[in-house]
Amino acid sequence: MSTVTPSRRLGSHRLAAMLGSPDASRPAYAWLADSIRQLIANGRLLHGTALPSERQLVTALGLSRTTVSRAYAELRDRGYASAHVGAGTIAQVPGGPVAGGGEPLPLGGFGPHGGSRGGSDDEGTPTAVDLTCAAPSAPVGLAEVYQEALDELPAYIGGMGYFPLGVPALREAIAADYAARGVPTDPEQIVVTAGALAGVAAAARLLLRPGGVALAESPTYPNSVTSLRHHGVRVAAVPITAEGTDVEAVTGALRSSGARAMLCLPDFHNPVGTLASNETRERWVAALRAAGATGIVDETCAKLWLDEEPDVLPLAAFSRDVVTVGSASKSHWGGLRLGWIRAPHALIGALARVRMNLDLGAPVLDQLVLARLMQRSSSLAPHTRRQLRSTRDFVIEQAADLLADWRVRRPAGGLSLWFELPEPASTRLTAAAARRGVLLAPGSTFAVADHGLEHWMRIPFAQSQQELEWALPRLAEAWDEVRGRAPLTGVRG
Ligand SMILES: Cc1ncc(COP(=O)(O)O)c(C=O)c1O
Description:
Keywords: DNA-binding, Pyridoxal phosphate, Transcription, Transcription regulation
Organism: Zhihengliuella flava
CATH superfamily of the largest domain: Type I PLP-dependent aspartate aminotransferase-like (Major domain)
CATH architecture of the largest domain: 3-Layer(aba) Sandwich
Oligomer: single chain
Number of helices: 17
Strand content: 5-15%
GO molecular function: DNA binding; DNA-binding transcription factor activity; pyridoxal phosphate binding
Mean pLDDT: 90
InterPro entries: Aminotransferase_I/II_large, HTH_trans_reg/aminotransferase, PyrdxlP-dep_Trfase, PyrdxlP-dep_Trfase_major, Tscrpt_reg_HTH_GntR, WH-like_DNA-bd_sf, WH_DNA-bd_sf
Distance between the termini: 33 Å
Low-confidence stretches: 100-115, 488-493
Helix content: 25-40%
Bound molecules: pyridoxal-5'-phosphate
Pfam family, one: GntR
């Protein structure tokens, strides 16, 4: 036994309600241990939560002391709980929660690791917070859906397991979602990929030759630009402002650059957060058509509305020609590593060939999981949406107080805030914040070509409130250092 302070406690009646009714076909201890294990694995019972005492649980569940003791012993043996002096039995994820799951942005100097590099001490207090990433954690219940998909797996095991275009059930679920969003889609128009970035890479190879030109708004999601460049494509930039896509500027840039394709992020643009109206979408596709360029529409953030569901149609509703890329990473979970491409029928054969030069298909089990998730809901889980809305508002409120000379618009969706700084100091601020354990991607990370963006800073809000509470005062202190001001106190908060 060791000593530890639990980060939260769970009452016996609350746990009893979460457990539901016992399974009469199994020994009671096995049912109890397994049900608690599922709650932990699914994230409903968080790592570090003190479980009710055995005596309390005996009363709440009407089970014998031996049954409850045996269930707790089983949880400890399997690494899902540990006993602590004074704190009783504490739920834990075997091996501890794994930090990470964020996007591998080009991180110039932060170290060799991709993904999130935040950390916490034994009591769950952060020791570093990674604000270079913006992705929500998995929805509650995901482990159960994996279990259901496992039960379905035997039907696939007799075959070779290669589905270069995707498992049919998932292609159907994705096509049905487009139809529900106002774009009738045949499952044959869908190719499942290992995420949206893989989709952008395949679309670029389909539409552009090495040496060709693509247009992208600046700022934009940087990994897509890097992917285009790796294919030998020259990426020309057109600015996007805090008001959103400027179709007149796009028209001019398409003409002057001779671009054959354009990377379009009409939905809660990463990082700016803007949502293009239907009218803008219509004018945008008209500009593409007039220039003979194809839109590579990245809809990764389309489901991330936070206030009210927007009344907009996918860009594909305005043009038969665009190639749309989608992702399960933000609407469901980044760990699925799944996305897709929706393309016109005429391009599917060529797209399939291009895709097979990159990889031969995504894993079957994860596709079965996503098909089930999408059949239930193609949208962000309501709990995740509520949490994101609250952390977005929290960061805005805190910034108004701690970073009073920064400016931001409250985005109606997405996962991050795009702050305007009063001076071009984003890279210096990033270095000062890193010294305090707050990792940031400076505005210039999101710039295409020579468009500096040193006046800008992206702050994601998909992190937990506890991490944000820890990071924001340290960020303010770093900002004071950059501005040459003495901080008011030591670390604020
Ligand atoms: C606009 C945009 N496109 C693509 C991606 C990558 O998505 P995926 O995880 O599906 O590859 C991201 C991830 O943040 C994104 O924001």
